[in-house]
TrEMBL record:
Gene3D superfamilies: NAD(P)-binding Rossmann-like Domain. This is Oxidoreductase. Residues 7-187 form the Ketoreductase domain. Belongs to the short-chain dehydrogenases/reductases (SDR) family.
Amino acid sequence: MSDSIRPLAVVTGASSGIGYELAKLCVENGHDLVIAADRPEIVEAAQAFRQMGANVDHLQVDLAEREGVDRLVELIGGRPVDVLLANAGHGLGHAFLDEAVSDWMHVLNTNVTGTLYLVHQVVGRMRERDKGRVLFTGSIAGLMPGSFQAVYNGTKAFIDSFSFALRNELKDTGITVTCLMPGATDTDFFERAGLSDTKVGTGKKDDPAMVAKVGFEAMMKGEGDVVAGMKNKMQAAMAAVTPQSQLAEMHRKMAEPGSGQS
């Protein structure tokens, strides 16, 4: 296959964790890449993917800002995007009223506003071609009230719901929309979110490579959603039949500061 006809994948949050593993799977399946993240490690990630044989454009940018998304769209240019993996996002621990306004607004703007703006730009062009695949990185956190992670869980509830709505709107097109719903995964998410001293932060976590593979395979099959890991599947099933007040109390025990200390 010549470089000129290799399909293009756009992956956000690709510097580490699930996003890095998703980008790696794209390369292994013959895609070139446009990758973005807000951390300098995106440079090393791009070099690794080039060594695997892909053509890679990378960008260190804050996708919480409209200007950041515009820069990413400009980097894509007029190239047709075959796969969009909207993975960028971050968390925030502690009680909502103890969080700085700038911090929780950045979570909202990264996880929701910036993601939707990028999807609107890229998937709009997919619709013109009537071809493409979209993968959102949602979370089982979106299925339960997130005491001491209230804003993060709320954003993931939005993304989980939005992905199903968009999928339905595009059901008569050649575009598929998939939502990957992982649980706690072994990435730097918990440290960045200030959750290192919590029960969920210190507990056992899933391998990001496994999580990414589950999501990638579901996307390639055109499935609507997939929960990664048997334990998480059980939690998702339980969340569907448990009162919201009880779920909030359960989440409190996992995410309250100091809950991970023995």
